[in-house]
Amino acid sequence: MEVTLLGTGGGSGWPHPFCTCASCNAAAAEGEIRAHTSALIDGVLLLDCGQDVPRSAVRFGVGLERVRHVLVTHDHHDHANGAALLWRRWAGRTEPLDVHGPRSALDSLAMWLPPDKPGVAFRPLLAGETVTLDGYTVRALAAEHDSDGALVFDITSADGRRLLYATDTGPGFQTPDGARYDLVLLEESWGDNTTHASGRHHDLTTFPLTLRRLRASGAVDAATRIAAIHLGHGNPRPSVLRARLAAWGAELPVDGETIEVGTPPRVRERPRRVLVLGGARSGKSAAAERLLAAEPAVCYVATSSENDDDPEWTTRVAAHRARRPASWSTVETTSLADLLRSRTADDAPLLIDCLTLWLSRVIDDVGVWSATDEVTVKAADVALAAVVDDLVEAWRTTRARVVAVSNEVGGGVVPEHRSGRRFRDELGALNARLAAMSDDILLVTAGISRSLHGSDR
User: Which of 4, 284, 426, 433 has the most CB atoms lying inside 10 A of its own CB?
Assistant: First the structure.
């Protein structure tokens, strides 16, 4: 099964033709111009046919003369525009063409043809129905969208390759029990704009949740290619979006790209050890959580617990707990080295938040602050070095996938007190040692994360 993406954009494409927002400006500058979402399977099966689609086919040198079936998800203009049927008639094409989809979409397409509709048959398709089209098995699934009868398509080729085409749907759509897909084309319309009407589209909050659900059910596995489609200017610039999707094992294709279904995912193997650095309230914890948002299960390692003597801190801890997914487990411990050594690559990934609090507790535990004479000071220093060395070695050798959060402390003023300077120096040295053993390091500033190993990560 060969799938050519004739478009990957939303209703107004991306960039939006009447917009000068930062997202649209960046998409234009990076040369990624996206037309209405549509896919062509093996030259004969066309998925959606918005007004951009015929011209996109010409642009990419893709002929539509062999198309024998059109599958339409719903009646919105960017998915069901009858101009293609009219132009096909003008070209003198009279070969049989079947158009399948919700009745509302078929009615809007039929208006573009004369009453006798030469060569074109409109065949209503309801959620739950299965049809066989020239060797392809097409299952119509119910979409979560604001259009009567909107559909998601589950398509299997004669050789057993299976595609999920899920555009214009919220996260509430369901796949058949036991389904396993080779390619998932999943809409991601709104990006970081989470104020849109709920239940109609995906954004960068719900997109990983859907992937998590599909992975948990077995519909998506390590060999499944996942591509984001139906993109709009609620998203960050394409280069940033591509990196964020890669953390979830998803790709950001370009218009005109052809995917051979069954080929391995093009996303790089996700880094095993990631260190996330940032200042206070920089968004580093949220960035770390986002990296693992598409995982079916995560072990959250909390290095601090509630403090009855500090209500404000207790409130912070409670807020962190409340935003963790229900599928995540939590471990409160400072025995990080032992935990890293005990985990395998098959275990749920670890999210350690944070190393700053861990170091603070370790310094207390080994008696650095309570040491009063030369002997106890030296003993405390030796004990601290041993614990830190143990953590660095466990980080270097762990087989687990792990994300750890720490404060970047080198950019502020020099602390007034000796204890503050000591803590800053110890944490800075720990960060540097762990960074040297990490597969990737993210620096978070004002809520924006970037890889210190290069933007392509």
Answer: 284
**At residue 443, what is the residue type?**
L
Residues labelled catalytic: 320
34 in Cβ contact with 231 (< 8 Å): yes
Which residues are paired to 450 by β-bridges?
Answer: 443
Query: Is residue 226 within 8 Å of 251, Cβ to Cβ?
Result: yes
| Residues 55-64, mean pLDDT to the nearest whole number | 96
Question: What number of CA atoms fall less than 13 Å from residue 446's CA on the CB side?
Answer: 0
What's residue 268's pLDDT?
Answer: 67
3-state helix, strand, coil in the chain (%, to 5): 30, 25, 50
Span 328-349, mean pLDDT?
94
Which tokens in the block code for residue 183? 């390619």
Residue type, 271: P
Per-residue pLDDT for 16 more than 80?
yes
Tokens of 456: 């392509």
Identify the burial level of 378 via C-beta atoms within 10 angstroms of its C-beta, where 0-12 means exposed, 13-18 middle and 19 or more buried: exposed
Gap between the Cα atoms of 41 and 380, Å rounded:
67
Query: How many Cβ atoms from other residues are within 10 Å of residue 392's Cβ?
Result: 16
Instruction: Report residue 38 as tokens.
Output: 């549509």
**Cα 49 vs. chain centroid, distance in angstroms?**
26
Query: How many helices (H) and strands (E) are present in the chain, helices listed first?
Result: 12, 20
Give the residue among 88, 94, 80, 87 at the shortest CA–CA distance from 147. Answer: 80
Name the amino acid, one letter, at 99.
V
Q: First vs last Cα of the chain: how many Å apart?
A: 30
* Tokens read off for 219: 């519909």
Structure tokens at 296: 């079916």
Are 371 and 382 contacting, i.e. CB atoms less than 8 angstroms apart?
no
Rg (CA), the chain: 26
pLDDT above 90 covers a percentage of the chain that reads: 80
| Overall average pLDDT of the 8-25 stretch | 96
Could you give the C-alpha distances from 92 to 28, 65, 70, 86, 97, in angstroms and in order? 37, 11, 18, 10, 13
Q: Is 237 exposed, middle or buried (CB count within 10 Å of its CB: 0-12, 13-18, 19+)?
A: middle
Q: Which amino acid is at 74?
A: H
pTM of the predicted structure, to 2 decimals:
0.89
Nearest to 159 by CA among 345, 343, 1, 27: 1
**Distance (Å, whole) CA 249 – CA 28:** 25
pLDDT at 457: 40
Please report the domains of the chain, with CATH numbers, ordered by start residue.
2-260 (3.60.15.10), 273-451 (3.40.50.300)
Task: Report residue 343 as tokens.
Answer: 């985990």
